[in-house]
Amino acid sequence: MAPKIKTIGVLTSGGDAPGMNAAIRAVVRAAISQGMNVKGIYQGYKGLLNEEIADLNARSVSDTISRGGTILYTARSSEFRTEEGQKRGAEVCRKHGIEGLVVIGGDGSFAGAGKLAALGINTIGVPGTIDLDIACTEYTIGFDTAVNTAMEAIDKVRDTSTSHERCSIIEVMGRRAGYLALWCGIANGAEDVLLPELYDYDEQALINNIIELRKRGKKHHIIVNAEGIGHSASMARRIEAATGVETRATILGHMQRGGSPTCRDRVYGSMLGAYAVDLLAEGKTNRVVGYRNGGWVDFDISEALDMQKGLSDYMVRVNKALSI
Ligand code: ADP
Ligand code: F6P
Q: Is the full-model pTM beyond 0.85?
């Protein structure tokens, strides 16, 4: 069946995530396979407003599936948050013949996509963020690579922490989301995990735990601290003074967002990108795609943004139980 629209655009927005290139590649090639033209919009909504737009063909995305970052670059745009900015965004799409748009990013980017959809541009959101904090989907592109990168880094810190019998505080990304921290907590066998969602930061409890686990013969004490709690360096100084255990802080930072995507991020990126194109070809708009209960799903953008997702209490409890 002929697609309902002739030309689509694709952009990446918000924080980059490994696997975004796999999603871009899938959008480009799935659309071309269905007889559509594709335009790449560089630097997210900022580039849309600046008309940084170029035609993409199947060769434009050659050799990108294994690359981290995003070949379309990404940005945050305060102008696009305004009604005027959104109207201009829709006008730019029309001027360039873009009838449908795939937005790869997080919740903020989807809010913007919803605004464009309301202005008549058929828009589909694809979840791309290392934070795993998009409620309508069990999976977000980039999480698997980032969590493995952080896990490998924490393993290395743990080696030296054990050799010196130190306490190590390792700060992982996640200003509002603790998924990376919690998963690393379990994967790295951390003694303590500090999560922004729980607001349970209790320094005295940490200090007591370090002293207690030392008595039980532990050679290191790993604290995985989410960026949303932060203050790792000052925390280390206070913990060392209170426990007498040498304590070091390591902030992993943006290295967690880079690197070649894992198999999982490449496959989910490819599938979600292709699925977004299928929806556009069917004439759908204002949807976010995702993965739930073993299948590819899509939701109305407003419904998706209203959904809530919390950290699993059970995972938090298991992590605690396993750290004795
Ligand atoms: P993420 O998509 O990863 O959540 P941000 O929250 O930074 O990242 O959002 C990315 C961009 O999406 C913002 O810079 C802005 O241009 C746009 N955006 C975010 N929220 C809105 C909104 N409520 N309305 C319109 N555009 C928005
Ligand atoms: O949303 C992804 C993320 O990496 C968060 O984990 C982190 O809090 C934030 O982006 C950092 O943003 P920036 O790239 O602006 O430092």
A: yes
Compute the distance between CA of residue 297 and CA of residue 57 in angstroms, rounded to an integer.
27
Place of tokens 């198999």: 263
- CATH code at position 24: 3.40.50.450
Reported as a single tens digit per residue, the pLDDT across 70-124 is 999 999 999 999 999 999 999 999 999 999 999 999 999 999 999 999 999 999 9
Among protein residues, the one with the nearest Cα to ligand 2's atom 1 is 15
Ordered strands of the 100-105 beta sheet: 53-56, 37-41, 7-12, 100-105, 122-127, 287-292, 295-300
Task: Report the separation in Å between the CA atom of 173 and the middle of ligand 2, taken as the mean of its atom positions.
Answer: 7
What is the residue range of 177's domain? 145-257
Q: Which residues line ligand 1 (CB under 6 A)?
A: 13-15, 45, 76-77, 80-81, 105-109, 111-112, 115, 129
The ligand whose atoms approach the alpha carbon of 13 most closely is: 1
| Domain count of the fold of the chain | 2
